[in-house]
Amino acid sequence: MDEVQSPPDERSDMDMDALAGIQLTLSKIEDELQKVKLQIAKQGISAGTSPDFREKLEALSQQDGEEKVVEGVFNGQQMVGPDGKHYSIPANYASKSKLVEGDILKLRILPDGSFVYKQIGPVDRDRKVGKLIKDERGNYAVMVENKVFRVILAAVTYFHGLEGDEAIILVPKDTDSEWAAIENIIKSSTR
Questions:
Q1: Between 166 and which of 3, 5, 127, 186 could a Cys-Cys bridge form, CB atoms 3.0 to 4.6 Å apart?
Q2: Which residues of 86-100 are buried (b: 16+ CB within 10 A; e: fewer)?
Q3: CATH superfamily of 125-186
């Protein structure tokens, strides 16, 4: 049975009121976002942006007998497959392997449903030194000069890092990034 849609001029007042409310809410959210960006800019802090990995994702998936093989790009927390799907990576694997944004990974999905990851294409890396910081929600990051890089909690806990410690991080070379891998932490001498 075909659905019959009423012409736009016959929409109910309730629909128009709901739409107006949504538009007002979006406007308020945009205003708040601009205020937050201004506050960050005033403090001279810039957050990194994740690179666009679409080019790397174009031809990275295949089926191999009973198991499925997917190749994808690490985005700082997960692997993004060529189909745009996000595949969870255990935090301890990502931190132990020191994965950085842009690394190419191969995921084998075994017949029993288990995931086996392998790093097959590491990107060139830069090493940076900064201070470990913690936000009000308990998330850790590393501040290098006036730039903040997010880090995986598993790496911070592995090195027994605390706010104020010096952190050596790895980031993609010649590419802006939001995330970094912790290579090591040097404990603050004030404790």
A1: 186
A2: ebebeeeebbebbbb
A3: Nucleic acid-binding proteins (2.40.50.140)
